[in-house]
Every structure is written in C-alpha cells, then in structure tokens.
Amino acid sequence: MKNYFVLVPIFISLFFISCEGDSGPPGLPGINILGLVFETTETFNLDTGNNQYVSRLIPYPFDVFESDAILVYHLQSVVPLGDGSSADVWTQLPQSVFFNDGTGDIFQYNFNHTFVDVQLTIEGNFDLNNIGNDNIANQTFRIVAVPAEFATADLSMEEVLRLIEIDSSEIEILSN
What we know:
By secondary structure, this protein is mainly beta. Helices cover 14% and strands 37% of the residues. A hairpin with a 5-residue loop joins strand 5 and strand 6.
C-alpha cells in the first residue's frame, strides 16, 4: 500500500508532463528598430555676436523621434593599415582642442539638435577669429540617431555601426 501512494503521484506527474496540446496562434511580427546614420562635410561660419562658429542647420535624411539619442562623430584622420588599406579615426563630440602655446586657449566642437535637424558649433574661451581654416573648413562628421531604448553613453563609431547593424559603405553622404 505504501508503494501505491508513492507510485500514483509519479504516474500522474508523468502524464501531465508528457501531454502536449495545440500550439497557440503565431505571435505578432517583431519590430526591427535600427539606428540611422549619415555623413556630412561642413564649413563653419563665424557668429561674431556669440563668438562661435556654426554650421548650417542640417536636416536629417530620415525620421527622428524626440526620444532618440543623437550622437555626432568628427573625422580626425585616416590612418594606413599594414595591409595597404586605411581606417578612419572618429572622435565623439563634444571634442576639446587645446593649444600648446601656454595661453590656456581651448575650443570645442559641439552640437545642438532637435528631432528635425542638427547644428554643429565651435565654441572657445578666446577670440575665435584666431582659429585656423583647417579647423573650420571641410570638416567631416557622422551623425547617428539611436532609438532611446538602445542608447548607451560613450560608444565608438565602430560600436554604433555594429549596434545598428550598418556597414560603413551603407552610410548616406549628404552634400551642402
């Protein structure tokens, strides 16, 4: 009798575990939310009243939502690789530039944005008329809109492209 009380629950649990019902209805298709990126080359104009350089208002070539995080990267240089190819060196904004002349002068590439457009700026602690043309003309930037739920601080350009599943050859390049 003692074995009966032990065996009955075992058989009942095996019966329920091994039962299989109809598979339910298929679920809704998932939403594939990817970030978007574009590249632009800008020449800054001096706003003497505010002692800053500003770019044009750059409209996004895609839809951006107010909750999206906007990241901007500045092309610093192109370095040769050992195999004969080259790689771009990108720095995330804001980016400070220090002068090594003992003056303590510093300027910074920065940006302002809405969900409609982005504007790049150069701000400094000295008269910005003294900045060389190589810092204000034909500067290349990549602008990335990352959906808020995927946004993480301090991502490199390579991490952003991997996160949003975009190859650098797919980046749209805007002309002024």
